[in-house]
Specification:
DUF3829 domain-containing protein; single chain; mainly alpha; 0% strand
């Protein structure tokens, strides 16, 4: 009599064995780590940006000239007193981080055990992120470079060879990621300058003669505590912007190391550990920011 149990076990294991063979001993864990860190950065950055927008609104009120409010309210201005589009600048960074998070998630699906439906969903999410980034005012050259990577990912789901698909997608994406990092570096520098400006405006306001109560009074103590808390918030926002900028600059090099590891499984990926650690630091900074 034939023992059916071993046959059933082999039959049940066949899809898994075929999947592993298609992956070619692909280490999907590093792509999962990239996905999780990118998501963490994306979420933490959104909260950090909300804190920056609140500080900007407070600064606009604090430094407003002595006039009637009017319909314009308290517009944001830069150091030269010119209108400043903070939401536009933040929108570019937010859309860029969203794209990187979607791209990292798509790579993880392709590298892991994601089925055709999962990979197709990741491709759709990535396309949506690219459209959002294009709508944020990103330069045409950067958008075109990233669009080619999205197209490559769309074709990747048609093949069972995951490692070959990853190679093709990542090779297409590398130039666009490098251009994106350069463009976002300029935006980050602009945001840092703006944060410095509103910090200095705040200091000029609190240092005006007569602004602070008499030294030694309880009111002076309470007021100075509020000033110290605000300065600490400015410092956390500055460090959060630094961390976000650092991660965006590091992404192309990390991506290159991951791509090279597909050809050399023993290659060290130092950037991945740094990327994950920085994501954790950013999350701790976000938690320390005041709720809006």
């Amino acid at each position: 009599m034939i023992n059916l149990l071993p046959c059933l076990i082999r039959a049940a294991m066949l899809p898994l064995l075929l999947s592993l063979a298609a992956c070619g001993n692909l280490d999907s864990g590093k792509f999962v780590a990239l996905r999780d860190a990118a998501r963490q950065i994306d979420g933490s950055a959104a909260s950090s940006f909300a804190a920056l927008e609140q500080s900007a609104r407070d600064s606009a009120v604090l430094s407003a000239p002595d006039r009637k409010v009017g319909l314009e309210g308290f517009p944001l201005v830069n150091a030269e007193g010119q209108p400043y589009d903070l939401s536009g600048q933040l929108g570019k960074v937010e859309a860029s981080l969203d794209l990187l998070a979607s791209y990292a998630a798509a790579l993880a699906q392709l590298a892991g055990a994601g089925g055709a439906a999962d990979i197709d969903k990741s491709s759709q999410d990535l396309s949506a992120s690219l459209r959002r980034l294009q709508g944020s005012g990103l330069s045409v050259s950067t958008a075109n470079g990233l669009a080619s990577a999205v197209d490559a990912f769309g074709h990747a789901r048609l093949t069972a060879q995951r490692k070959s698909s990853l190679r093709a997608v990542m090779d297409q994406a590398q130039p666009g990621l490098e251009v994106l990092a350069l463009e976002m570096q300029r935006v980050q520098q602009d945001l840092q300058l703006y944060l410095t400006d509103i910090s200095l405006r705040y200091l000029r306001a609190v240092d005006k003669d007569g602004f602070r109560p008499a030294y030694g009074s309880w009111a002076r103590y309470q007021g100075d505590l509020q000033v110290a808390a605000q300065l600490a918030d400015f410092d956390r926002q500055r460090r959060a912007l630094d961390a976000i900028g650092k991660e965006m600059r590091a992404f192309p090099d990390l991506h290159r190391q991951l791509r090279q590891s597909l050809d050399d499984s023993g290659k060290r990926i130092d950037r991945l550990r740094e990327f994950v650690d920085e994501a954790k630091r950013l999350r701790s900074l976000y938690r320390a920011l005041p709720s809006q």
